Amino acid sequence: MTSHAAEVEAARLLLTRLGVTPEQLLTSTTPPTAQIPTFTTYIRQVAESVSPGTRRIYSTYWKRIEDVWGDRRLDEPTALEIRQLAERTKAAAVTRSNARGGRSAAEHLISATRCLYRYAVADGIIAEADNPATRVPKPRRLASTRRALPHSGLAEIIEIAGSTGNDPELDSLVLRFHLETACRRGGALALRRTDLDPQQCLVLLREKGGTVRWQPVSPTLMAQLLAHHEQRGGDPKAQLLRYRNGNPITSRRYDHFWSRIGRHLPWVRSQQVSTHWLRYTTLTWVERHFGYAVARAYAGHEGKNDAGVTYTYVRAALEEVARALAALTGEAHPLSTDGRPSGLPPIAAR
């Protein structure tokens, strides 16, 4: 028996033991066309499976996909068609003062499409090799125009926040919370009374991607958060930050806040300063005075893709973050004994 014949015979023996016939190997594993859902059907299924944050971001773009391809099957559009739809979405993007040529709209359209096809691959509706969305590159991101605020500019914002508006007490509290924790808006909006540890002056932050971390805050801020809950009520397991009438604040409070600050400070309006600039400000200060590892821990960045292997060995501890906070605010912290001078303008307790 030749070598080739022996290999064929071995293959036949293996197939026999597996209970597979050669004819079955020739049968396509791709689901029949009738079983492949349309975009309208599948978008609704995926929308029920993703997190509220993902649904909020992608819903606009899924609606656009449904308007264009609603009756088509998932296996019909090509990579070229997806790219063409992204370009049309880019061209139709609403022009705002901070617009960047519709790049973000195109990027989100592609991301929303990739999300649909990831589920389709996982469900076995299409094969990974047949996924057209992975063959469409996202637009190159431009460098962010955000930066750390200068000390004088931050002092101006703090002054306006505490002396104008219909609830300066609330605005000053929210402003201080973001400056001390460098958290995102979602972290503040998700804060609950049960997330406060008064004894160690720690707050539990829940931010994007489902990340959860303990973050040090100053004794003054902790006292303000506790007083806020006592005065404005609410379930300890519900949102902590509330209006005077007891209703929880939403992201619209941030929009109104920066709109008001912009009316008093034209440079805030022209440069499109937002809450995320506060995160830049605090983390820049921490990095300059305490190094990259502490700033990374302060920000809650735990991924290793952009940090290198060394970060595994130099990761900062919570006590180091507390030490940086103590220096930032000029207040002693239970987890730190460092008494360096303050790095922020004073935020008066109101």
TrEMBL record:
Residues 144-326 form the Tyr recombinase domain. Transmembrane segments: none annotated. It comes from the Bacteria. Keywords: DNA recombination, DNA-binding. PANTHER family: INTEGRASE_RECOMBINASE PROTEIN MJ0367-RELATED (PTHR30349:SF41), PHAGE INTEGRASE-RELATED (PTHR30349). Belongs to the 'phage' integrase family. This is Integrase. It comes from Catenuloplanes nepalensis. The lineage of its organism: Bacteria, Bacillati, Actinomycetota, Actinomycetes, Micromonosporales.
